[in-house]
Amino acid sequence: MAYRFTTFIVATLLYTSVTAQNASISGVITHQSEPVFGATIFVYELGRGTRTNAQGEFLLQHMKAGNYTLRVNFTGYKSIEQQINILDGEKKRLNFELESDVFNQSEVVVSATRNQLRRQDAPVIVNTISNRTFEATQSLSLAEGLSFSPGFIENMTV
């Protein structure tokens, strides 16, 4: 009798834990109606995320019901943050349209060492190019913006 009762309790607990995390979020990330491959979708509260496939699709499974903050990132595009509420067992579908953000990216630091260092501690000269440089020079690409950095030589041989 005790064996049956223990088996019943264990089965009930397993069923409850499995069904408590059966919600999911899926969707497609695009830019100008074209799928974005490799974009990151991160759920802050869970500390986990996923990336889009070649069709721009993503899927986050095994989620508990609750409120979450999603962040969509991809280099060269503006990040998107969205608050969502997902119910137990819900299969929520969200689609995101990314906007280009060529000139408002953070600074790019190119140095001659392989270790991460603060700019002040670097043993070599470090030049920093900010988004203001790209705006002032009206550079259309990273290569054009870098050409305004002292000591940088663009070598484009084909």
Question: SSE layout and pairings?
Answer:
Layout: H1 2-19, E1 23-31, E2 34-35, E3 40-43, E4 48-51, E5 57-63, E6 66-73, E7 80-86, E8 91-93, E9 96-97, E10 108-109, E11 128-129, H2 131-137, H3 142-146
Parallel strand pairs: 1-8, 1-9
Antiparallel strand pairs: 1-2, 1-5, 3-4, 3-6, 6-7, 10-11
What does this structure look like?
With 158 residues, the chain is an alpha+beta fold. It folds into two domains: 76 residues, Immunoglobulin-like (Sandwich); 57 residues, no CATH class. It is 19% helix and 32% strand. Strands 1, 2, 5, 8 and 9 form a five-stranded mixed sheet that branches. A four-stranded antiparallel sheet has the order 4-3-6-7, with no helix packed on it. Strands 10-11 form a two-stranded antiparallel ribbon. A hairpin with a 2-residue loop joins strand 1 and strand 2. The longest helix has 18 residues. The radius of gyration is 24 Å and the shape is elongated. 12% of the residues are buried. The model has no long low-confidence stretch (mean pLDDT 77).
Q: How many helical elements?
A: 3
- By helix and strand content, what is the structural category? alpha+beta
Report strand %.
25-35%
Gap between N and C termini: 81 Å
Corresponding CATH architecture of the largest domain: Sandwich
Biggest sheet details: 5 strands, mixed
Query: What name does CATH use for the topology of the largest domain?
Result: Immunoglobulin-like
Provide the succession of SSEs. HEEEEEEEEEEEHH
Number of strands: 11
Radius of gyration equals 24 Å
Helix content: 10-25%
